[in-house]
Amino acid sequence: MAPPVVLVPGFATSASRTWGDNGWIDLLADIGRTAFALDVLGSGSCEKPHDPAAYAMFEQHLLDRFPSEPVDAIGFSLGARTLLTLAALHPDRFNSLIVSGVGRNLFERDATGESIASAIDGTGDSNDPTVRYFVQLAEAPDQDPLALAAFMRRPSAVPMTPELLGAITCPVLVVLGDKDFAGPADPLMDALPGSRLVTLRNVDHFATPKDFGFIDAALSFLSTQN
Fold first, then answer.
1. Which of 55, 110, 120, 221 suits 129 as a labelling partner, its CA being 20 to 30 A distant?
2. 200 and 211 Cβ atoms separated by less than 8 Å
3. Is 184 a residue whose pLDDT tops 70?
4. For 5-223, CATH number?
5. Cis omega before residue 209 (within 30°)?
6. What are the residue boundaries of the structural domains of the chain, listed by start?
């Protein structure tokens, strides 16, 4: 019996929109795989607290809703970061891992988080096109701007370091568009010896979940993990 597949979306979107609307759940069913498309705390169908402190156990909140057996997991952007953290802290829960929309950005600290938070909750503004895109996502009916801003201001996020990622024991596929602001993928690949990289040509961050190159690479990778 093939392991279940956990699907985790990015920031300010939902599992339904990222994985359902783009055909992932149906395609996984076509190859006999059971998908668990899970929203993260603060987004989609999950609770949406407005207190940043409520997000201190953000990763654990997701892990608590995993199937009991080891899973194959696919994450985009924030979902990818969250899955990498969980795979490092709980390697026994993962059979394989596919991460997309992450690379160099995982290891850098900048002011983008607060820029996004203040633009979303209306206390600030930004001319940065990436920030403006997240503001548009936050206006969707299944999102709560105050909850999203609170998440961006959460305390004690687990730092992403090569040492942390070195604890991951499962096979990892990294998928990154060559136009993605999260790249390049080199620092992530260096921290995950033995992982594989698929580069999507002429694909930016936000087009990644619906890109056929990503879908094909993921389904092919999963077929080798049975």
1. 55
2. yes
3. yes
4. 3.40.50.1820
5. no
6. 5-223
- Residue 106 or residue 129, greater confidence: 106
Check residue 116 and give its pLDDT: 86
d(CA 71, CA 12) in angstroms, rounded, equals: 24
Q: Are strands 71-76 and 196-200 parallel, antiparallel or unpaired?
A: unpaired
How does strand 172-177 pair with strand 71-76? Answer: unpaired
- Give helix then strand counts, H and E, for the chain: 10, 6
Q: Are 132 and 119 in contact (CB under 8 A)?
A: yes
* More confident of the two residues 124 and 7: 7
Summarize the confidence of residues 69-93 as an average pLDDT: 97
Residue 104, number of CB atoms within 10 A of its CB = 16
**Apex 95 CA angle, 91 and 100, nearest 5:** 90
Name the least confident of 42-46, 108-112, 116-120, 148-152.
Answer: 108-112
